[in-house]
Amino acid sequence: MGKLIYDGIEIEFEDRALVHLQIVIGSKLRRGESFFLSWNDAPNIGDGRSSVWLHASIPLYFKYYGGTTPSLNRAWIEALAISANSGQGLLLSSEPEPHGG
Fold first, then answer.
1. Cβ of 49: how many Cβ atoms within 10 Å?
2. How far apart are CA 93 and CA 39, in angstroms?
3. For residues 60 and 76, what is the distance between their CA atoms, to the nearest angstrom?
């Protein structure tokens, strides 16, 4: 489990999901775009849903626990990017099958 640390808030994600989020979040923040990031909470913390407003002026830290970078799934990056550009913001979805497979 990796962590996204933002404004004193620590949010745990699997390393594989976190690397895909990092790509999409980094792309939006580089363009100066603020947005919501939302995810479904784990059952052990209430099984609800959480959201955080991301803004480029607040430091963001990605901490990975694995020693290697997971392979990237372009289809997942595209799906997350479409979500990030919607009115609801970036919603972490489950990983789709890679294109062509």
1. 10
2. 8
3. 21
